[in-house]
Amino acid sequence: QVQLVESGGGLVQPGGSLRLSCAASGFTFSIYAMSWYRQAPGKERELVARITSAGGSTNYADSVKGRFTISRDNAKNTVFLQMNSLKPEDTAVYYCSADRAYYISYWGQGTQVTVSS
Q1: Which residues pair with 5 in a beta bridge?
Q2: Predicted confidence (pLDDT) per residue in 26-77, tens digit
Q3: Helix, strand, coil percentages in the chain from 3-state DSSP, rounded to 5
Q4: Which of 33, 42, 56 is nearest to 105 (CA)?
């Protein structure tokens, strides 16, 4: 069965770093673009970063450009989100997703990221 399992979330101080991972199984990972979304309490889910199937192209929300980096390892069916210089406003549940031509087929269950002193 299809699974997207996020890990790596937690509590971090402002200015700190976290690396999220999303392990995929049950579908052909290498033909899907992968994205990270986040949803803060009381807010809509927003796209944070997206990477194309072969990893040749990425795009980021303006709020995270220069601080977050998305990458993928197709041999290990895993997508990553390296988050540096974290701010309290980055606090949210982070979800990974798999899409083809921006049609999202699969979602993970989410991992909590809390940035607080």
Answers
A1: 23
A2: 999 999 999 999 999 999 999 999 999 998 899 999 999 999 999 999 999 9
A3: 5, 55, 40
A4: 33
Q: Is the pLDDT of residue 90 over 90?
A: yes
Q: How deeply is 17 buried, as exposed, middle or buried, from its count of CB atoms within 10 A (0-12, 13-18, 19+)? A: exposed
| CA neighbours closer than 13 Å in the CB half-sphere of residue 68 | 28
Instruction: Provide the token pair at 102.
Output: 């921006």
What residue type is assigned to position 25 of the chain? S
The answer to whether 5 touches 107, Cβ cutoff 8 Å, is no
Mean per-residue pLDDT for 11-26?
Answer: 98
Provide the token pair at 23: 């392990």
